[in-house]
Amino acid sequence: MKSNGGRWKEWTIKEQIGQGSYGKVYKISKEDFGHTYEAALKLIDIPQSGAEIETLRSDGVDEKSIQTYFFSIVNEIVKEFELMSKLKGHTNIVSYEDHMVAMKGDGYGWQIGIRMELLTPLDTYIKTHPFYIRDVIKLGIDVCKALVLCQKQDIIHRDIKPLNIFVTEFGDFKLGDFGIARQLEKASYAMSKKGTYDYMAPEVYKGNPYNSTADIYSLGIVMYRYLNNNRIPFLPAYPEPIMHSDKEKANLLRANGTAISPPCNASGKLVDIVLKACAYEPSDRYQKAEDMQRDLEKLVLLNQVGNSVSSSGSFSEKEKIFRKTETEVKSQSARPDTGGTMKVTAKDLPQSSEISSKHKTAAIISVSAVVLIVAVIFTIGLLSFGGEEYDYTNDDTEKEETVIEPEMDDIAENVSNDLPSEMTEEEKEELFQKAKDSNTYEHEPVQMYDGHVYAIFNIRKEGLNSFQETEQWCEERGGHLAVINSEEENEFIYQYVLDSGLKLAFFGYTDEKEEGVWEWVYGESDYTNWAEGQPNNGANNKSHKGENYAEFYRKNSDGTWNDAIFAVNTHRFICEWE
């Protein structure tokens, strides 16, 4: 499969709209004969970081085999694009438009760009729209329609979860990310899959053989969550707080076949449908997606004659069954006003090799299918850079020659940029240089996420000696100590610290107002991921000497936070600008 040349210069990056497990997503647009066309651009790096290369080396893999290994991952992903092109045009499957593949100059790395239709992620949609029982049913019907096509093509998605479900401007639900996550798992040893575990069928969780009913199971868990106050089976009932250990226990209970109780906001036939989809034994589930679709459609027909909630399974068209949680409301309203925003242009975004994992998506508006069809369709295939051509074949010799070709431009550099900036060039340079000079690692430490700028600083080099001093230091520069409002932002900061060659850093989490009462610098705690018994900075802890702030230290394999002991000679702190 060869490219026929070309670049994406006519497309302009407008904003970053998401960050997922394997890369960042941007909103892009182009002007053509007085019309504006919009799309989404996902950028994926393989490998995600140098740590993955080092892991292979430590396992005794030689350099040429490492090159071939990562190339094989790229080749498998390209094959997935062929599959995605076959599914294109289906009402309930995200439309794949085009892709690019670029090799990096280090001889190991690749960057993949995927252009697809612009849609609103499900969780973002729910935060900005009322969500009713009828919407959950429609979600189930629409995803079933996508799975019907998958079953006809002998395709098992295997990664159905809210992050991979999207909503059109007309309220239709679409399934996306076919096969890519499955291939990328092979390329990343350190990648967290906990979001996937929450929806994974027991047989997949255990590594046993599975079939298409695994997708039906995952869809059932997604529906269960939205019918159960945003909680998967076996988690504490809303509004009880959720600890990381609660999620682990919940997933183990499901994997071991513990009977699932009905979701709290459903009854009658709807409960029967959801619990059948979530049956522990694959043979007890719907065997065909069309059967589940038919039962859900029957439920809708039955309820056209009434609006009351009853034991027969009727549901109220007026009853909103999913609402913003207190955490989500706070995260939207409690961000401090730092006296103006701080934005950067696309050239100030981290380079592709620094793309972090996991994401918090921002609300976006999708364009109609008609506009997308009118848009200029790029050739499906590999697009070359600078006239170079790459032949993706199965011949080992050609693979090796391809991997060691000269350096190519990153895909992001082949897309125009139109990100707004209120900073002068001098201000940006001063910030970047300040962050660079304050750290001992090599790559550029400043990163942008969800419209915010983050930088890690060395507390000793700044002449600071306390949490209060670092807090004041950030505020004097128009920012604040970083705060975390979601699991996606938590993952971003974790990966940011790891990519920076660090093990720990502290942010704006403190109990300075009242001993043992922890909160972010702007108010109550919105999102935390502490391990059991953490943070342990109490006055009775002699080693911590009653410190009134917490530092996360990523030493747990499950990704939970452990509190670290303060050491002025080694510690960093994270500032955030909005």
Description:
By secondary structure, this protein is an alpha+beta fold. The chain is built from 17 helices and 20 strands. The protein has helices at 50-58, 63-87, 122-128, 133-152, 180-184, 194-197, 202-205, 213-226, 244-255, 268-277, 289-302, 326-333, 369-374, 396-403, 425-437, 467-476, 487-499, and strands at 8-20, 23-32, 35-46, 96-103, 110-116, 120-121, 131-132, 165-167, 173-175, 320-322, 415-417, 447-449, 452-458, 480-481, 504-510, 519-520, 523-524, 549-553, 562-563, 572-577. It has a 6-stranded mixed sheet with strand order 4-5-3-2-1-11, with helices on one face. A 5-stranded antiparallel sheet has the order 17-16-15-18-19, with no helix packed on it. Strands 12-13-20-14 form a 4-stranded antiparallel sheet, with helices on both faces. A hairpin with an 8-residue loop joins β15 and β16 (519-520). α2 packs across α14 (396-403) and α4 (133-152) packs antiparallel against α8.
